[in-house]
Amino acid sequence: MVARSQRDKAGVDLLELYRWAVQAPETHATVLRLMFERLHPGHTPTVLREDFAGTSAEAVAWLALAPGRQAVAVDLDGPTVAWARRRAERLLGDCAAALQFVEADVVATAPPAVPAAHILSVLNFSILYLREPAQLQAYLQHAWHCLAPQGVLVLNLFGGPAAKKPRSDRHLITPQPRLPTEAAIPPFEYTWEQRHFDARTRHIDCRIHFRTADPAHPGRVLDLRDAFRYRWRLWTVAELTSALHAAGFATVQVWRHTHDPAPGGAGVFLGAVDPRVLDPLAHWTAYVLASRVSSEDGSASSPSAARSGPSSAA
Q: Which of 112, 121, 122, 203 has its CA 20 to 30 A from that of 102?
């Protein structure tokens, strides 16, 4: 889900800027497949569900990268769903028929209305929209029921002392399409701002700003402040892990995607880590993977045997 102040400003498509600034959908689609296959060797995922889907860029990439796949994209905002549908039809052509768009609350969307997912993707920090423990627990239990027997839920989050301090990070974005049907747009500036963190509630206020060429006045630049605003709760890894186990997931792992030149070659590492490696880091991002069955023996879990979820933030 994309939180925004306005859908367009001065003739600029904010969703298009957002897609290029913060999303790498083809990379994410590949990484999601690898995660599933590492947890369940010998099994190939074909059904991806993207919750809080916003632009639905991951669902589109999932279909574009391999034949015989299905995808479901769920988002509550009608205009955003309509935008994503147009983009899917433009990029996928006839293959867009394999993408089922659902304009609804994610907790109101479940099989058999949609197929059970091999992978349920909740990226772009969307799990942080759920600011109350009861909300979080209800969603995770619902997610368990939306997965196929060997299904995997993939979340991401960020943290560390630097995540709690006001900061702004500015980047020059030069769009480079990886799909042959996708057109580039002119370069633009993107700024991620962490404006305020409340230590008592762990609520965080984040913003996205853009600077881009003015389409109506060549040579001029538009400064688009607060193009998107996020009011999130910064859940800890321990809170999410506890809540996932309470929801019935048998396997919960923290994964990192980092660069370490020591192994040689490209030095890229992607895999499960001990959550304690995050403790000394000033700022970190991580994936949290949760599987309905044990990745070791394939035994299933059951929500009926779950423990109680977290009652408050740490």
A: 203
56 and 203 belong to one structural domain: no
Bridge pairing between strands 147-159 and 167-173: unpaired
User: What is the spatial distance between Cα 293 and Cα 285, in angstroms, rounded to a whole number?
Assistant: 25
| 210 shares its domain with 250 | no
Same domain, 77 and 16: yes
Looking at the structure of the chain, the number of domains it has is 2
Do 96 and 127 have their domain in common? Answer: yes
* CA atoms within a 13 Å half-sphere pointing along the CA-CB vector of 4: 20
Three-state DSSP at 273 gives strand
**pLDDT by residue (tens digit) across 100-150?**
999 999 999 999 999 999 999 999 999 999 999 999 999 999 999 999 999
Q: Which residues contact 79 (CB under 8 A, 6 or more apart)?
A: 7
DSSP 3-state of 281 = coil
What pLDDT does residue 294 have? 84
DSSP track, 174-231: -----STTPPP---EEEEEEEEEEETTTTEEEEEEEEEEE-TTSTT-EEEEEEEEEEE
Is residue 312 domain-resident?
A: no
**Do both 63 and 88 map to the same domain?**
yes
Measure the CA–CA gap between 118 and 138, rounded to whole angstroms. Answer: 20
Record the pTM: 0.90
Tens of pLDDT, residues 236-267: 999 999 999 999 999 999 999 776 655 555 55
pLDDT band (50, 70, 90) for residue 216: confident
